[in-house]
Amino acid sequence: MVASSPRTLQASNDKAHEDVRVAVLGASGYTGSEIIRLLANHPHFRITVMTADRKAGQSIGSVFPHLITQDLPDMVAIKDANFGDVDAVFCCLPHGTTQDIIKSLPKNLRVVDLSADFRLQDILEYEEWYGQPHRAPDLQKEAVYGLTEIWREEIRNAGLVANPGCYPTSIQLPLIPLIKANLIKCSHIIIDSKSGVSGAGRSPKEANLFTEVSEGIHAYGITKHRHVPEIEQGLSDVAHSKVTVSFTPHLMPMSRGMLSTIYVEMAPGVRIEDLHDQLKAYYENEEFVCMLKKGDTPHTRFVRGSNYCHVNVFPDRNPGKAIIISVIDNLVKGASGQALQNLNLMMGYPETTGLLSQPLFP
């Protein structure tokens, strides 16, 4: 997934027993604020820089009152940020703006990018789906895709990690172990996913107004959602052949949460019990991926605010087919929580550090 590179070679774990000084770029967005919330419980990571161009000069408490008790530096414009007081960076900026910024950072910094700018290995595919040329192709070559439970060892030694998208996280976690074990066919995979409105970001948009999304549900990005190539890339890598999927996302009238219902055809001779047993064994020692007991249905409400992913497998009424259901919190395991999990690995700490808060219910 990654080639050796100057940034990777210069990064080291020699600060594993010191405070790690962290910059949060794009601190005024949802993923930025979620990083800050999670870091409040981290014993070793300390925020020294926060940027937000439109909120420069303001405190985080004035933008997000739920963080008012945190003793943090005021936000600054990126051009005014001092990276001499930083060891690692969470980049929570929109796609298209991130490449130039990360390219300009000191090479010794560990970087976790939460945008889509470094997720796709093929820069021509990036241009096709995102409508603009990739402006840091050399940097793309060194980026490691940050699906933690799957690419743990590659992430550990990386200098730049491309944090996965929320939909791809909820989809790849259950599918990759089954594809690796040749238990399902890679053709005709159908994915129906549903997300809370926070997945669309914090920028004001008419389509995301309360009156536009409440008391209803609608599909969007039909056949052309930008997470499609990321999903297919991850599945193809483990299948060692091109995998295509039918993927349709839906917007739900809730703040956060994500549910993916995945329809697959089992390989000849495979039983539904085989799928369940494979996923249970694959994630048996993983803190954040929980295979539920047979018959239990994953609910978004039971992972809310946490870094957990709940998964289960059900028999389809059509013989030889199965239904897989996966739930995450799109802002935590689908974004900021997974980013913190990755940076923990990169800096030599247990990846669960600061992430063991249990889900919020009710």
TrEMBL record:
Pathway: Amino-acid biosynthesis; L-arginine biosynthesis; N(2)-acetyl-L-ornithine from L-glutamate: step 3/4
Keywords: Amino-acid biosynthesis, Arginine biosynthesis, NADP, Oxidoreductase
Example of a GO biological process term: L-arginine biosynthetic process
Active site (record annotation): C166
Stated name of the protein: Probable N-acetyl-gamma-glutamyl-phosphate reductase, chloroplastic
UniProt GO MF annotations: N-acetyl-gamma-glutamyl-phosphate reductase activity; NAD binding; NADP+ binding
Organism: Punica granatum (Pomegranate)
SMART domains reported for this sequence: Semialdhyde_dh
CDD domains linked: AGPR_1_C (cd23934), AGPR_1_N (cd17895)
InterPro entries reported in the protein's UniProt record: AGPR, AGPR_AS, AGPR_dimerisation_dom, AGPR_type-1, NAD(P)-bd_dom_sf, Semialdehyde_DH_NAD-bd
EC primary class: oxidoreductase
